[in-house]
Amino acid sequence: MSGANLANLVSRAAALDAIIATGPTQTRMLSVEIGANDLGISAPYNANPNGFITALISYLDARRAAGWKVVLHTILPRTEAGQTDGGASMNANRAIVHAAIVTWEGAHCDKVADWAANATMGANGASDNATNYADKVHPTLAGYAILEPITRAAINSL
Asked: Residue 15 in contact with residue 58, Cβ under 8 Å?
């Protein structure tokens, strides 16, 4: 969902968790890729990365309690025109959140898919590469081809 933020995930949580309650018994994987909009342009977290961390922990803990196996992706950079400072504040927020997320395996998620650690896709300014980013926010097919093995490894480890 383009333009999604953490509040959107929270608003859909009950419907998502209903899948667990009514579906057949099997392992259910939930891949969570969120934060670029929250930290870049959406109040209240664009000026409050610690608030985002707290809210994300609450969301993830509730999904795990409902029965989901959660793979959490780290947050990619963004430098599009909507960033008044060229993405510097978003990337500063992203660094704070990243430092927390990479410690969460087994606590708030089952596995971290560390996209931000990839030098091609995750470095500050990487989103300026039009081959890998369609709009300085969203990866292209070429960009996702770089990220896919990271996600696949995280899922397969579960």
From this structure: no
Sheet holding 68-73, edge to edge: 28-32, 68-73, 111-113
The architecture of the domain spanning 25-156 is: 3-Layer(aba) Sandwich (3.40)
**pTM listed for this prediction:** 0.92
* HSE (side-chain half, CA atoms, 13 Å) at 18: 4
Contact between 112 and 74 (Cβ < 8 Å): yes
Mean pLDDT by 10 residues, the chain (158 residues): 82 92 80 91 86 97 96 92 73 95 98 98 95 94 98 96
CB 74 within 8 A of CB 116: yes
- 147 token code pair: 């990220």
Tell me the domain boundaries of the chain. Answer: 25-156
